[in-house]
Write a structure and sequence with these properties.
Elements (H helix, E strand, L loop, with lengths): L2 H35 L2 E7 L14 E7 L17 E3 L14 E3 L8 E8 L13 E8 L11 E14 L3 E7 L7 E11 L1 H13 L2 E6 L14 E3 H5 L2
C-alpha cells in the first residue's frame, strides 16, 4: 500500500468516526428532548383561593396534563386524595396541588359526638376559628331568664371545646343586628366534638342563654380552671 492509499484509508476512518460521533450526538439530543416532554400525567391546579382548614371538594380543582418529569414526587395525580380532607394552609389560585397541602379532617374520639350550633358573627371570633381550633364556650343569662331574685351572670359552659368544622356565614331570618342599628344578623354554623354532658350544656345554652360566645385559645394551651372561675356576675366586681 502506497502513501496515497494510506491517506485514503485514514480519511475514510476519520469520516466514519465523525459520522458515528454525529449520530451519537443526535441520539443524545433526541433522548434528552423525549425525557423533557414525554410521558405526561394528570396534575391538578386550584381554580380559586381556598382558605386554610376549609373542607376540600373536587370542583375546586382543574385537571391539567404535564410531563411527569416536571412534577415533584409530592404532587397529587389522583383527585381522590382530597376526599374528606381539609386545606392545611391558605391555598392560592393556580397553585399545583401537593400532598402536604391537605390533611384529614379532625375525627371524633371515643365517647364524643358532633353537635353544631349557630354562633352570631358579632359575638364569635369572626374569621379566626377554623377546624382544629380549641375554644371556650361562654353563655350569658339575663335576669329575666332566671329564677326570681337571681342576677345576670356569665358562665363558662364548656372549656377546651374542639372545633371540627366551620360552615358558611348565614343570615338569620327575621333577626336584625341591633348592635349596628340596621341590617340582618349573620351567624356561622360551628360543629364541635363534645362528650354527651358537654353537648347537653351547649344545647341548653343555645336554647336559653341570651348570648353564646366563643373564646379562641392558643394551640396546645388548654384552659385550667381554678375554683370559682366558671361563673361571673357583676356583683363580684362591685363588692371588691
Amino acid at each position: 500500500m502506497n502513501s496515497r492509499q494510506r491517506r485514503g484509508v485514514i480519511l475514510l476512518i476519520l469520516s466514519v468516526l465523525c459520522a458515528l460521533g454525529a449520530f451519537a450526538g443526535v441520539v443524545t439530543v433526541i433522548g434528552d428532548v423525549n425525557s423533557k416532554v414525554g410521558p405526561e400525567v394528570d396534575a391538578y391546579e386550584l381554580k380559586s383561593d381556598v382558605a386554610a382548614y376549609t373542607a376540600l371538594q373536587p370542583g375546586q380543582f382543574r385537571r391539567i396534563r404535564m410531563p411527569e418529569r416536571w412534577l415533584s414526587e409530592n404532587a397529587v395525580t389522583d383527585l381522590s386524595a382530597v376526599e374528606d380532607k381539609i386545606a392545611v394552609t391558605d391555598l392560592r389560585k393556580g397553585s399545583l396541588l401537593q400532598k402536604d397541602m391537605v390533611a384529614a379532617r379532625p375525627a371524633l374520639e371515643a365517647g364524643q359526638q358532633e353537635i353544631a350550633i349557630m354562633i352570631d358573627a358579632a359575638t364569635g371570633v369572626a374569621g379566626k376559628i377554623t377546624a382544629g381550633s380549641t375554644v371556650n364556650i361562654y353563655a350569658t343569662f339575663d335576669d329575666d331568664r332566671r329564677e326570681k331574685g337571681a342576677v345576670a351572670e356569665s358562665r363558662l359552659i364548656v372549656a377546651n371545646a374542639r372545633v371540627i368544622d366551620v360552615g358558611r356565614l348565614t343570615p338569620l331570618d327575621g333577626k336584625r343586628d341591633d348592635s349596628r342599628g340596621t341590617g340582618v344578623r349573620e351567624a356561622v354554623p360551628i360543629t364541635f366534638a363534645l362528650s354527651t354532658a358537654d353537648a347537653q350544656r351547649v344545647a341548653y345554652a343555645e336554647s336559653f342563654a341570651e348570648h353564646v360566645r366563643l373564646a379562641l385559645l392558643p394551640r396546645n394551651s388548654p384552659t385550667v380552671l381554678r375554683p370559682g372561675e366558671g361563673k361571673y356576675t357583676l356583683d363580684e366586681d362591685r363588692n371588691k
